[in-house]
Amino acid sequence: MTTTDRQPHRPLAGIRVADLSRVLAGPYATMLLADMGADVVKIEHPEHGDDTRSWGPPWAGDQAAYYLSLNRGKRSLAIDLKDPEGLAAVRELCAGADVVVQNFRPGVIERLGLGYEQVKKLNPGVVYCSISGFSSGHSPAGRAGFDVIVQGESGLMSTTGTPGGSPTKIGIPISDVFTGLNAAAAICGALTGRERTGTGTHVEVSLINSALSSLVNVAQRGLVTGAEPERFGQAHSTIVPYQVFPTADAEMIVAAGNDSLYRRLCTAVGRAELADDPRFATNPDRVANREVLVAELTAALSAKGAEEWLPILTAAGVPVGKVRGVLEAIRAADASGDAATITVDHPTLGDLELVRAGFRFDSPTPEADAAVLPPPLLGQHSTAVLEGLGLTDEQIAGLVARGVVNQNGQTRSTTRRGADHR
């Protein structure tokens, strides 16, 4: 059963995606497409599959947590692209797909005969998405792009960290995530354009361009001033107070983004006189006198714990939040009534909890959750996909016998558990 069959109410139901990507940016994009109802067929090497299958610990049973985070909603076709028959099957899949996503090194996909121009001849309406570290126009050509390199090269790292301290890597592979989001958005836009024009298109998305575009107001600050933007750590460059504050027992964020919110904050913390102080009357004044004001507010907020301040400031209409750990944040979201996770029925792990996408089409229900495919075992759907392409039982059996296709859902990569490849 395809994703489309299970989620016919989703906006991309009926869309077939041939996913030739691996690791993070591409699989994240295709997972979002699957969340929107697309039937995503994940093409993997028959022996080791996606690289992230071996990126543990930690493990859930014999499945790497990293892999599980990026591949729900998909079907796995484990097939050797170096074999002529295997390649022919994947070419047939691309010929009938609405969307093809790939992130091979430059030149490799063309040598396989699966580049955009080659697929376009078979499938003129295809929306073809190429994902790379550095775009095709970037020099030097073919430069490898990993998240940590792009965080540094794009300026992202320079914006993160304490003032006067060293640039700091963001704790998640953020340039990959931005790239996946950009790819999914561009693909959806291209599919909409195809409905209007009847023609497909080639979408190029890179980590470097995604990271640069994410700099938004910080980049514009540099363009306007002609100076490198400073690091502000847990504070904001142009809004005060808009930062983390220590309390008696934990750190808390206050985001008083305008004059009205600032006055409410002063009253709520028992320092109403600060609202009338001319040094802090407007946001530009508060930015100019940042250090003095932050010291005053820190002293006031240190009188109580975070759990005491949260209801007080919330009742006053002041945007406020607690600095939480990851698991604490997930459980807090669940407790608020906005379920942050989904539980799927995994073929070997049973109930498996995964983080939901950042969008909702309707209120999550047990029935809708039950329709979501779990992250597939390696080759779990090889037979069904190949049958859908018109291969006979005898042809499939021959491919399996020669090791071209894996159809048993097992992966030898789990034997490498001793190493942590993060």
Description:
This protein has 422 residues and is of the alpha/beta class. 39% of the residues lie in helices and 15% in strands. The chain has 19 helices and 14 strands. The chain has helices at residues 3-6, 25-35, 65-68, 84-95, 108-111, 116-122, 147-153, 174-197, 207-213, 216-225, 259-268, 273-276, 283-288, 290-301, 306-315, 326-336, 366-370, 382-388, 393-401; strands spanning 16-20, 39-44, 59-60, 63-64, 74-79, 99-102, 127-132, 201-206, 242-246, 251-255, 320-322, 341-346, 350-355, 405-406. The strands form four sheets. A seven-stranded mixed β-sheet has the order 8-7-6-1-2-5-14, sandwiched between helices. Helix 8 (174-197) crosses helix 9. It is elongated. It starts with a helix and ends in a 16-residue tail after the last strand. The relative contact order is 0.14. The model is unreliable at 410-422 (pLDDT under 50).
Task: Note the topology.
Elements: H1 3-6, E1 16-20, H2 25-35, E2 39-44, E3 59-60, E4 63-64, H3 65-68, E5 74-79, H4 84-95, E6 99-102, H5 108-111, H6 116-122, E7 127-132, H7 147-153, H8 174-197, E8 201-206, H9 207-213, H10 216-225, E9 242-246, E10 251-255, H11 259-268, H12 273-276, H13 283-288, H14 290-301, H15 306-315, E11 320-322, H16 326-336, E12 341-346, E13 350-355, H17 366-370, H18 382-388, H19 393-401, E14 405-406
Parallel strand pairs: 1-2, 1-6, 2-5, 6-7, 7-8
Antiparallel strand pairs: 3-4, 5-14, 9-10, 10-11, 12-13
